[in-house]
């Protein structure tokens, strides 16, 4: 198959960038991309996320059409599923030990909740409600150098950007 004209035009720039990168002392090498299917349930939704733990374990999450979170873990060269978690829009982060955490915004009986879930040693999710109120947008989760979770979100009722530290 002949490359597209766009690829023909871009290829000299890519080669030049690799040569320039090599000249800076970095080692340039061609690395083939590997594509592997993780889940084929037909229930895969949207909003995918990926993160790497300090020990090299990879975690991939996807918001499914049934409003649950699919979490896959790659350890020792093999992928496995973690327990699903009922969620709304979400953000994920790994703590310093590589343990996955999920921040989600859910509506239950017309009450909106911001929930923080942690995968425990028994491989089940522990969930804590950290805020209730109106609609919340733009949730984000990160861990600081002391391994404390920090959450930022917009409270749509009073239109305020808020920060929560656990």
Look at the structure and give the CATH class of the largest domain.
Mainly Beta
Spans of at least 5 consecutive residues whose pLDDT stays below 50 are 1-22
Number-wise, the strands total 12
The best one-word shape is: globular
Mean pLDDT: 77
Q: How far apart are the first and last residues' alpha carbons, in Å? A: 54 Å
Q: Do you know the CATH topology of the largest domain?
A: Neuraminidase
Largest sheet: 5 strands, antiparallel
Rg from alpha-carbon coordinates: 20 Å
Q: What proportion strand? A: over 45%
Assembly level: single chain
What number of domains? 2
CATH architectural designation of the largest domain = 6 Propeller
Supply the helix-strand structural class: mainly beta
Annotation field: number of helices: 1
What does this structure look like?
The chain has 166 residues and is mainly beta. The protein has 2 domains: 31 residues, no CATH class; 129 residues, Neuraminidase, CATH 2.120.10. Helix content is 11%, strand content 49%. The protein contains 1 helix and 12 strands, in the order αββββββββββββ. The strands form 3 sheets. Strands 1, 2, 3, 4 and 5 form a 5-stranded antiparallel β-sheet that branches. The chain has a 4-stranded antiparallel β-sheet with strand order 6-7-8-9, with no helix packed on it. Strands 10-11-12 form a 3-stranded antiparallel β-sheet, with no helix packed on it. Strand 3 and strand 4 form a beta hairpin. The chain is globular. The protein starts with a helix and ends with a strand.
């Amino acid at each position: 198959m002949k490359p597209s004209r766009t690829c023909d035009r871009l290829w000299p720039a890519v080669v030049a960038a690799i040569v320039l990168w090599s000249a800076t002392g970095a080692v340039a090498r061609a690395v083939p991309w590997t594509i592997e299917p993780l889940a084929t349930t037909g229930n895969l939704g949207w909003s995918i996320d990926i993160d790497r733990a300090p020990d090299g374990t990879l975690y991939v999450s996807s918001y499914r059409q049934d409003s649950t979170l699919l979490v896959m873990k790659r350890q020792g060269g093999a992928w496995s599923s973690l327990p699903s978690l009922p969620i709304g829009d979400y953000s994920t982060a790994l703590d310093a030990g590589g343990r996955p955490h999920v921040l989600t915004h859910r509506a239950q009986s017309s009450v909106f909740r911001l929930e923080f879930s942690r995968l425990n040693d028994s491989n089940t999710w522990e969930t804590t409600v950290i805020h209730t109120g109106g609609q919340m947008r733009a949730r984000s989760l990160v861990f600081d150098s002391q391994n404390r979770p920090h959450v930022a979100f917009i409270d749509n009722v009073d239109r305020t950007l808020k920060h929560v530290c656990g």
